[in-house]
TrEMBL record:
Enzyme class at the top of the EC tree: oxidoreductase
Molecular functions (GO terms): 3 iron, 4 sulfur cluster binding; 4 iron, 4 sulfur cluster binding; electron transfer activity; ferredoxin hydrogenase activity; hydrogenase (acceptor) activity; metal ion binding
Organism: Roseibium aggregatum (strain ATCC 25650 / DSM 13394 / JCM 20685 / NBRC 16684 / NCIMB 2208 / IAM 12614 / B1) (Stappia aggregata)
The organism's taxonomic lineage, starting at the top: Bacteria, Pseudomonadati, Pseudomonadota, Alphaproteobacteria, Hyphomicrobiales
Superkingdom classification of source: Bacteria
Swiss-Prot/TrEMBL cofactor(s): [4Fe-4S] cluster; [3Fe-4S] cluster
Name of protein: hydrogenase (acceptor)
Amino acid sequence: MSVQRADRAAPVRLFWIQSGGCGGCSLSLLGAEAPDLVTVLEAANIEVLWHPSLSVSSGASVIGLMERIRDGEEPLDILCLEGSIMRGPNGSGRFHIMAGTGKPVMEWVEALAKKARYVIAVGSCAAYGGITAAGSNEVEACGLAYDGRKPGGLLGADFRSGAGLPVINVAGCPIHPGWLTETLHQISAGRFSQKDMDEWERPLSYTMHLVHHGCARNEFYEFKASAERLCDLGCMMENLGCKGTQARADCNMRSWNGAGSCLDGNYPCINCTAPGFEEPGHGFTETPKISGIPVGLPTDMPKAWFVALASLSKAATPKRLKENAVADHFRRPPVDRQKKS
């Protein structure tokens, strides 16, 4: 798939591989809007050499392309991996063979990564192992540069791409289209560097924020007016497992599919951009507590301050919020005190 225009410089060449995952990140990416995906790629002067859902070519022609890239006969600017690396059984990679080659996918990924100027892990599976690595992990799934929270993965913690960068982890389950397309635009413009990544090598363009930012339930959070059921309108942190005050992403500031987020859909944030989110040690809709205090406190906030402020907030909660928090629709409207009856 080429979006190169005649008046442009040489395009930025991108190759996409899918490994152990559901394909949800590609599905989300295809839903990019305002602008659509093709327009985004054209604006960034990106040529998609191959993508399993976007490209017509398959079989021998794709294998030939990979061989030429591996052998240095064709340049590769960006390698994108979607899905985890499946190393089983016993580190052989034989659980996941690249059709027509007889070689494990992990060997192809490693070979192409050595040739790429930038390597991007698309989604939390590719970044850290994700859902594919949950449970007993019989397939020995891992990410490109991490195995869960541990540095390592397929390429190792010391890996650096041709541009001198570690793997860029566009984490999420799935990703928002904008998280990847913004990163691609920065790379194409020559404006992406180590300082544009956080401590987990995720782009700061979206992890500079917390999911809490822009949440429609923030007034309920401020007064600790908590929901008790998933259909309730109140804050889901206290009782329903919401990690929006800890999760690094702009989900409530950048709408999904035209509008909305997980929280707008009455489901708590599960912090899917973080390594290990798939194994919280409790149900996703449960908030573990010690002496009634949630274990997962807001990012950067000392426990003593949270307890003190929460107590004050609960004492000052307006009746309107108390009632609306445990209802599935707004029952009591705000009242203007300046208006006399």
